[in-house]
């Protein structure tokens, strides 16, 4: 049975999509069967895999969730795009925003994504969900459907502060809706090792949360190569195979695999 990991943080721009993509492709490079789910109406994960006009895609996560709400049949592989880097993608676009509003009147609305993901678990080793930057119903759906949460945190003061709210939401979901949910770990992203500030933040996160939540040993360095890779619709391994970000995501992949043992 596949493992489901939500990549979540309500703060925008902390490298959720970048991490989902490069951890996902990293796992695929280790021979794992991987499904990436874009659960953000901005469609950044979808776009950074080269599907540059997400709003033109006909079948997305919103379509699938709407089918579940309407109790309609979902064909095998419906909406799934097969990327050349050996990962599958269920894309997202702006329709997901409209769906989130519609869902306010739906019975058991927190369980819609879980219903879909549970049917996909037997087909994949890993299912990674790129959450949107909010703690609304779509993120709750992702947390309910997941086994663990990976929390990317940009090495800066404010995002570190916002973590408490996310941790509280995860605890509530665990208590009321998904008892087996755990926090996989905090991943420090966009770390600029040239500055002492970044090092201070890293040690501060370790001091504040290290006793309660595990923090990935590997951190992701800041590099302009990341934006270049997503503009090309490729993973960092393809765009800059010997660069520091590529190595960092490869090491993170190993750490995630080690955690399974
Ligand atoms: N290690 C890095 N070094 C430099 N830039 C990075 C790095 N990781 C991500 N970025 C850039 O930061 C921006 C935000 O990244 P990304 O889209 O992955 O974040 P996000 O948390 O998914 O954003 P949102 O909350 O808007 O969905 C992008 O422009 C991306 O190219």
Account of the 3D structure:
- The protein is an alpha/beta fold and 261 residues long.
- The protein has a single domain (3-260), classed as Rossmann fold (3-Layer(aba) Sandwich), CATH 3.40.50.300.
- Helix content is 45%, strand content 14%.
- It has eleven helices and seven strands.
- The chain has helices spanning 16-29, 44-48, 61-69, 95-102, 112-120, 137-145, 157-176, 196-209, 225-232, 236-239, 244-260; strands spanning 3-7, 34-39, 81-82, 88-90, 126-131, 148-154, 182-189.
- It is globular.
- The two termini are 15 Å apart.
- Adenosine-5'-triphosphate binds at residues 12-18, 40, 42, 44, 133, 189-190, 220, 222-223, 226-227, 230, 245.
- The site of adenosine-5'-triphosphate has 20 residues, from helix 1 and helix 9.
Number of strands: 7
| Chemical compounds bound to the protein | adenosine-5'-triphosphate
Number of individual domains: 1
N-to-C SSE string, H for helix and E for strand: EHEHHEEHHEHEHEHHHH
Q: How are the strands of the biggest sheet laid out side by side?
A: 3-4-2-5-1-6-7
Average pLDDT, all residues: 94
Termini separation: 15 Å
Radius of gyration: 17 Å
User: Strand-residue fraction?
Assistant: 5-15%
CATH topology: Rossmann fold
Residues in helices, as a percent range: 40-55%
- CATH architecture assignment: 3-Layer(aba) Sandwich
Quick one: CATH superfamily?
P-loop containing nucleotide triphosphate hydrolases
Number of DSSP helices? 11
Low-confidence stretches: none
InterPro entries: AAA_dom, DNA_Partitioning_ATPase, P-loop_NTPase
Family: Belongs to the ParA family.
Catalytic activity: ATP + H2O = ADP + phosphate + H(+)
Protein name: Sporulation initiation inhibitor protein Soj
